[in-house]
Amino acid sequence: MNITGVITEMSNLIQRIIAGEVSLKEYTKTEKERLVYKVLSDLPLSSILKIKQELKGNIFAKSRRAFGKIVHRDSLIPIPNLSLELWDRDPFGLKDYLACGETDKIGNFEMMYDPKAGGFGDTPDLELRIFDPPQNVFIHGQKSEFRNLIEVKIGPDNVMDDYDFGVLQILYYEYDPQYTFSYSIPDSIRHDFVPEALARTMRSVAKYSQIMDRLIQKNRRDPNQSSYDEIQKSFPETLTLILEKSHKGYTRSDDFFGERMLNGFNPVIFKKDKNNPSLYNTAFNGEKFTLTGKIDLPNYKVIFELKNGKLLPVEITLQFREDNCVQPNPPLKAPQTYTPVDGNKWLQAKRVVRATHLGVLGEVKGHLSQCHFNMEQYAIAFLRNIRKNPLRGFLYPHLKEVVHLNKFGRKILMDPEEGFFAKLEPMHIKPDMLQWITTNIGTYDWTDWQPRKPLYEGHTFAKLGNLYWNILTTYVESFFTANQEEIANNWTEILNFSKDLVQHSVPYVPLSMEQVDDGDEWYDLNEIEHSSNPRQEVNGELKAIRPITISPQPTEQDIANLKQVCKYVIYQCTFWHSWIHNEHNPEFGELKYGNLLTNGLMGDEDDESVLPGHQVASIILAVTNMLTNFNYGYILKNEDGDVPPELIKLIESKKAEFEKLRFDLTTLRSRLNS
């Protein structure tokens, strides 16, 4: 081989090293490659950077052109700022780097390359690689980058002239038209769980699926087995069971009931009683739902009183449907009101509220709606639009797995043939589940949102929320101070992000399906929609999410809006979702404490006729354990190395304050990944 060929091959090797195609330490199969490795290893960093610049410049005579356009398949909307690489395909899977580039603001791309870069005497066989932008990671304090390969487009063999790839339509976080809220078409999701997260998820699913299947098979052989006690003991012991061993009756007390409604799974935002402002209440209305007969969904209203530093229930009103009425807006039985003097009936009434508040309201509204599907709106719009803007690296660690997780959850839980809920056939309140989620999301918006104010000294959840919000405020302000110029320079991405958010937002509704306007006022509006800022109409629909910006250049208010969106998204993906998961099993993991009930609901704990069946009980405990015993993706552990050190330092600086409020910072999740 002549000297030109040697130089060309060595240059190709260096190109592949720079592009990340091969590792210097691994790719040393020949003496020539070892020599290149040795030469590069001995060079100072400045020289390596110079080589990199030259190789991306005109070291070859770049005489040929590859060009085209990349658009969304669903809408043909151009996709700007995608990173591209052009390669030559060689036999046996070998490849030669030819050029790099990116799409412009209307999705067009053009790359010049030298055909000799494919190797001496080799006419290039083209391959186009499409990447998301690089993401920074911090491993052992060292900053590096990784990239996510979106798609590979194979061009023709033996290209002799300029080549037009044409208009390339790719599936790239497309909106699923089957859903009334933002949901991504599964095949368009261009990334996966990180490998360790996926492995741990599957281990958790497999572990509890095996337990569940064993219990269900036993029940099919004998409808009276497994017993409820056996089902309960098949899963990890939960908080209420542990507390009952040392404090018999405490978890059924008024003290515990009030404290958990305030600080437990799905913590309540109370209203002030219009007839007595010193009283607080919470309510649920189940009249609009279609039922299947598997569970009951009564109306309830619980009135609380602040007394001696405690929030205590003083009155519960329940109203059930007439027997066998499953259609919406059914005839109702007369409401029944209970107070602490009613003894056993009072205990039964509290259990009815717990079952509905935890198993239905908490799961669908607090968990699925506010966490998963609310945040998917932001994640899809973010992943479709934000690439060059510094906001990419800032929010990506928190939003990177939302759309994939929701796809995974839809298959594992809701697939009509394979999902766990299919085993409950017919699935409880399935006809209205998506409508309810839609109305829930229709009440959410980032504007003027901040954590609720503490109701009184014992309101731990509110205190923690405000402590964390203050950390995020400092964190976001610092980021914008350091990056505001670059944010402004790439404002078109923010504008498109905002447009996608608003256009695909659900319609605004003042009340979700379970709410009624009873004339009572919220004790605090921080987390309740109350902004006077105007909304936008799209095709005659008033949208729930307000625009971040409508300007091609950011105004002072636009920057303030974007800061608020950042705080809102990070809070929901980290603190709120962590709280939901941390507090889920402690209350929802005991069948007799708060599991779904049926057959009129009112009954003593030992009355098994009000429980929804052995198979359903097995499935519920399996699902709650498999989805909450997933121990990966925490901010302080930073397993993937992509949480910026600044956020970790700010959180650690407040460790003593979190500990004082009895919150374990090691359980604070970095993202929605379970």
Explain what this protein looks like in three dimensions.
This protein is of the alpha+beta class. Among the domains are: 59 residues, no CATH class; 318 residues, Lipoxygenase-1, domain 5. The protein is 41% helix and 15% strand. The chain contains 18 helices and 17 strands. The strands form 5 sheets. The chain has a 6-stranded antiparallel sheet. It has a 4-stranded antiparallel sheet with strand order 3-2-5-8.
Produce a short descriptive summary:
The chain has 674 residues and is an alpha+beta fold. It has 18 helices and 17 strands. It has a 6-stranded antiparallel sheet. A 4-stranded antiparallel sheet has the order 3-2-5-8. A 3-stranded mixed sheet has the order 4-1-9, with no helix packed on it.
